[in-house]
Protein 1
Amino acid sequence: MIEGPFFVLIVVGIVGTGLMAGVFCAFSTFVMRGLATLPPAQGVAAMNAINGAAVRPAFMTVFTGSAVLSAMIAVVTFVVWPDEGKLELLLGSALYLFGAFGLTVVANVPRNDRLARLTPGAPEATVYWPAYVREWTFWNHLRGVAAATAALIYVLALT
């Protein structure tokens, strides 16, 4: 049985990855669908505003904090090498680090950066908006599944 500070670290990791799964789920199930119904100029402006608001301490603490916790869980797992749950802890950490955090860096952020460079209402923005919504949402689905699975696997490591 995993106990003490390592147990607490894993529980906090479960909360963080679970919160991020919820954020990703919200975007995949209704936020992006709602934005997609707007005229392109309004959708681009709204998404740019959302992206700007996301880079604030409240969100970034949970998002990057969960990545740091996942890395710490992996490192402590290698050091402690518990009798039970080691595979689950390493898999959960990899899922969040590569599937949620990593995909954000390589798939979602570049699309956000490109969208931010466009002027809402400009022809280029109008053309890019449908592709942005489709592609961004696809990668977001994967981030959500990765974060939710990481949280679930962390829970399984404690059972």
Protein 2
Amino acid sequence: MRLLFAVLTGMVFGAGITLSGMINPAKVLNFLDIAGTWDPSLIFVMGGAVVVTFVGYRAVWRRSAPLFSARFQVPTSTVIDGRLLGGSALFGIGWGIAGFCPGAAIPALGTGRWEVILFLGAVGVGLGLARLAKGLPLWPRRAET
């Protein structure tokens, strides 16, 4: 049941990203081009996501535990350090150069564009290098739940 809900959630997310046009990197790049062909539609997509997330979190936090886990998986660190800032900057630079974030690139695989495959390959290499730099194995073993 847990896997089914994960797949359904991914499908809803992918459909939303596709319907909003955010699988088209030109829309994202035009949003960032304030002095040129600025396209404000990304603001409305993000605004809609913030509203849905706000309502969803208010409902979920009323529960004592999630539906498919014993407890909520909430980050405990509040440290803003070089790793966080560097990772955030790298994410933003990659988004600005490619016009994709990983969340939009996965549904964009359906377009068959080679740029999407190249982008996701680069993301995979970056994740692997980060894991190696931290002394972690490339393929983590998943804990049974």
